[in-house]
Amino acid sequence: MALYQKTMCALDLLLQTFISENKSMDEVCFLLQHAEPWLKSDEGLECRRAVQSISLLLQYVADVLKFTEEATPSMLGHQIGLLTLLWRDKDEVTRNLSCQCVHLLLQLLVLQKGRTVELPHVNRLKQWEVRGSREWQAKLYHTVKAFNETLTVAQHTQLVLSLLHGLGSHGPLRCDLASQLLLTMFQEPGVKPEQVAEVLQGLFRELPGIVFKGIRQTVMQAVSALGARHTQETVEVVLCLGHPSERQVLPLWKALATTPRLTREVVTQLYMKLKLRPPRLLGRSLSEFRPISLLALGTIYELLYVQEFRATVRWAFAGILLGLLTQLHYLFELGLLEDISDYPEDTLETKPLSPCRTCLEALKGLFWTTSYWEVFAHLKLLSGWELLEHPETYTDGVTLLARAMAQYNCEVKAVLGQAAISLKSTEERENVAAILIITECRLTRPGNTGNCGCQFLSSPEVFQHVSRRAVDNCLSLSLSNSSQLVRAMSLKGLSSTLMHPKKVALLRSQLLGLLDSFLKPEPKDITGLMEVLSHVLHRLGTQGDGAVSVKIAQHLLPLFEDEREEVRAGAIFLFGDVVYSGGKKFRQTLKGLAFQALVPLLLHQADPCPKVVMKAKFTFLRCAILLKWEFRKELSSKLAWGRGPGAENDIFIYMVESNFSSCQQFLMQALTYLDSPLQGLKLAAMKFIGGMLQDYFTDLCFYLKKGDVKILQKSFETLREDQDSVCRKFYLSFLADVMELSQYVT
Asked: Residue 454: its pLDDT value, please?
């Protein structure tokens, strides 16, 4: 023991000799570096001896020496961090001495700067003993304040990195101290903007090593506090750490969504970064150089599906929408078109997405996750998303999207406001997306639906969101835009019924003339006539003539069964427009006609013409929305993506369950299709009738009349001698049900 004491005294004298020969903080830092392995030791005695030697050395320096030159070694912050982590050591001597060491080091830093005024927070560290959690929190607060008062930015950064490394310790007390100190440091204004990148990168490296759940939660609180003070820097760093879907990255984004204010700032930062355009790549590929706008794009796409961001995404809907539309245009300009159309929807989760595909899927996700499923399904059933896959049809896709948003009142006020801002941008791509949304005017192209109009600018309800003068100024200024498309769309907007209310009367009179032609026994070019009618209805918007709309709808219903495919498709599609165009006065009448069209629209989903099938699904959904069915969202999914008997049965159930008291009408309508010359419709009618007899037999017993049953029996008898074996098999399968039904119905 005596030999040990002599050895320790000799070591202390040796250290004092070294520091006497080179009186500077650099020498102190150099000597402390040699003690680091013992400060990190898991052996309690080794750690205590190292702290004792450091304590004696620092006390000697403070009492005897006076530094001849000022030095600020950055690694001193790291050593202060190591000593601070020993404040929760199991050994009491180590705890007390490590606190004393930290106090002495901070005091030396103050003295070498020639300060004569005492710093209260540094002096508070002299008192180690604390009682209770409240005093412990106060101790941490004064410690952090003392660090902020004395350390340079570089030293402070090294201190934080040392504490971060301590998070991976296997001792829960040491981990807890590190996490609590970090939380307090990030809550206080001590971390400078230039430190954020190194701090977050250090944190990201240590995250996999954090084994205690409570410590991880505290660390995430610290990230939230850091993000609240340095939002822009934090977002930029986390963007570069990795894809949000990675295991260690997603918790960081969730930590930045702990308060509504912070979440809004983060989302705003992200969609603003979509606008950042780097210089031309100069031969470098995107694999070598990833613009921050692409990193923001991928992050927005993932965060759309994170629950913590849902409410804020809805709040920032307009900004994200315009940002994504502009970004897609920008990616087209870069020529990044490869693989955009080569992603079947069932492989999106397994196949890496190209930038263009990511942008398109983000657009889809924006509408789906904010519960604007009507807009999503609208575009899906009209192949509108496919229009956005190609530069040549980009404007058509944006126009169709704007029309659907206007139809279902999707964030119209916010989108109009954001579009007006984008029109003032110096970038043509922003102007194009904005003017297409504002005017919702469409350049007719082959393969389109054949309609063009100004849905946003054809309804007086737009004045609930923006004044006529503001719209006029916005469009007038755009007439001098460098883009020919922007100028043309602005001119169309200025000629809309919104800007010239007198046009409404002219269009209504034109509609009457078209109706006369339409009601003739055999009108010439009926397909073209229906396209013109649709065009006029779109121009009028909600200011149309309800009585005329009713007559058109009534005349369209028989055309659903026309032998010409293009006439069936045109009539079904126009019907969906007409039932929405009559205004409040005729709404109930048009709802009645929509109800009357349900069975024909359902059965025409088995039409041999694919174009008719898609139009029937689309108009069927519009009628369901108009009639306010209970399962509208589920129905839209089945219509858009459902395939096979399972989807057909679900659609059948949604229809019947939403109109429970209408079994009799549905059955009677379906019976008329047993004589259809189109085999697909005939088979669909048999499935429908079979489903009614099988699943709703009791309801039919209640709602059918005796005359209805006679019609049913008569229709069934025609199938008995049918040449098609499927029809004869259907007859035999359900004959017993029909006979039993005739016994119950009186």
From this structure: 44
